[in-house]
Amino acid sequence: QFAPMVAEMLEMPCVTMVSALTTDGGSAQCKRDIEGGSETISAPMPCVVSVQKGINEPRYPKLPDIMKAKKKPIDIVDGASTDARVEIRSMELPAAKTGGKILGDSDADIAELVRLLQEEAKAI
Q1: How many CA atoms lie within 13 A of 117 on its CB side?
Q2: CA triplet 42, 49, 85: central angle to 5 degrees?
Q3: SS3 content of the chain, % helix, strand, coil (to 5)
Q4: Which of 21, 30, 99, 109 has the maximal Cβ count within 10 Å?
Q5: Environment class of residue 85 by beta-carbon count within 10 Å: exposed (0-12), middle (13-18) or buried (19+)?
Q6: Is the torsion defined by CA of 28, 43, 7, 21 positive or negative?
Q7: How far apart are the first and last CA of the chain?
Q8: Which helix (H) or strand (E) holds 67?
Q9: Cα–chain-centroid distance for residue 55?
């Protein structure tokens, strides 16, 4: 849900669950696995793409780069100055769960189970 939300806020096209990605100039060719095959989608750049795990091999930093990163300054940004894009209108606790019923395996208990499923649970 995160990638489509970001794409909507940035007013960009979005492609999700991508298993292979290639770019050429002004477009991105995204391959997605679907049931029984795969589909290829072309999206204009810039676009938001969410990919499947394993699409890329991460590059691990060298030890000298890690040591340099420890010494870099961290800029602190005041979070109160940003405008909220989400407004919480209400919050409620979920409905309390009702207690279960334990029945045996006699013919009368099975008949009672069927009656409960039909009348109370409306399952059958």
Answers
A1: 9
A2: 125
A3: 25, 25, 50
A4: 30
A5: exposed
A6: negative
A7: 34
A8: helix 63-71
A9: 17
pLDDT at res. 54: 83
Secondary structure (3-state) at 23: strand
Give CA–CA dist 106/111, Å, rounded. 9
Q: How far apart are CA 118 and CA 122, in angstroms?
A: 5
Residue 4: asked if its preceding bond is cis (omega within 30°), the reply is no
Distance CA 23, CA 47 (A): 11
Q: What φ, ψ does residue 35 adopt, rounded to 5°?
A: -60, 120
pLDDT of 89-108, one tens digit each?
888 888 888 778 888 889 99
User: What's the confidence (pLDDT) of residue 81?
Assistant: 62
DSSP 71-93: HS------GGGSPPS-------P
